[in-house]
Amino acid sequence: MPLNNNIKGAKTTMRPNRFVKCADFPCSDIRKDRYLVPDIEIQPEKVRALMISEAPPEDATDYFYAQNNPSYMQTTVQAFNDAGFDISSIEDVLRLGVYVTTAVKCAKTSYAVSPETIENCCVRILENEIGLFPKTETVLLMGDTAIKAMNFIAKKNTGKRIIPIGSTYKIRNIIYSYKQIRVFPSYLQTGKSYLIEKSKRRMIAEDIKAALANH
Q1: Residue 70 covered by a domain
Q2: Domain for residue 168, yes or no?
Q3: pTM: predicted TM-score of the whole model, two decimal places
Q4: Quick one: angle between helices 71-82 and 198-211, nearest 10?
Q5: What's the CATH number where 129 sits?
């Protein structure tokens, strides 16, 4: 499907959910009725950073791009505020050149997502989604699921993982790269625990600040 460039002089725009799709939903530990890929009009050439979270919420009204201040966006806005960015909405995040998505595209049915599901989703969908943004300079991996997803993509293409095994707080200050893109392993910025775990909030803020330092 071609990108939308119908208006003379307009910037090229697209909707990610029209380019990345799951055809057969092979995973067993997900809710395929809660499948979500960002349905927003975006200019891919303006995206400089990707923020990859875990999975869509069980309630679609909590998703990043939902209306009326969804819960996923409330904690994400707080994370950017903690990092020193004066923002209040997903539109503000996009204006910073940051595209927010999830590693797994369907809501999970238990606390953790299986490695099989992560691998299925990232090599079928996430890798293509990342490829929509050719000017990406940095990728923020928000939590273990996103880290595993990026490692699956890297192993598929290079034969080795990007992020080593280990506690995130021990490995997060090392420089990691994938195809000239700086990759930051961090912590999940959604969910009720975000507001409670102050040390993780601090590290998330530091990672966001570092990832956007040169944008």
Answers
A1: yes
A2: yes
A3: 0.92
A4: 70
A5: 3.40.470.10
Q: Residue 187 sits in which domain range?
A: 28-211
86-111 pLDDT tens trace: 999 999 999 999 999 999 999 999 98
Maximum CA extent, the chain: 51
Q: Is residue 20 part of a domain?
A: no
In whole angstroms, give the CA distance from residue 65 to residue 102. 12
When divided into structural domains, the chain yields a total of 1
pLDDT of residue 11: 65
Mean pLDDT, to the nearest integer, of 122-144? 95
Give pLDDT, residue 197.
Answer: 86
Please check whether residue 16 lies inside any domain of the structure: no
What does the buried/exposed string (b/e) look like for 78-108 if buried means 16 or more CB atoms within 10 Å of the residue's CB? bbbebbebebeebeebbebbbbbbbbbbbbb
Give dist(CA 68, CA 6) in Å, integer.
Answer: 30
pLDDT score of 193 = 81
Task: Indicate if the pLDDT at residue 171 is higher than 60.
Answer: yes
Rg of the chain over Cα atoms, rounded to whole angstroms, equals 16
| Alpha-carbon span 88 to 167, nearest angstrom | 31
CA distances from 141 to 24, 26, 30, 107 (A): 26, 24, 20, 18
Number of Cα atoms under 13 Å in the Cβ half of residue 68: 3
Place of tokens 């875990």: 54
pLDDT at 1 over 50: no
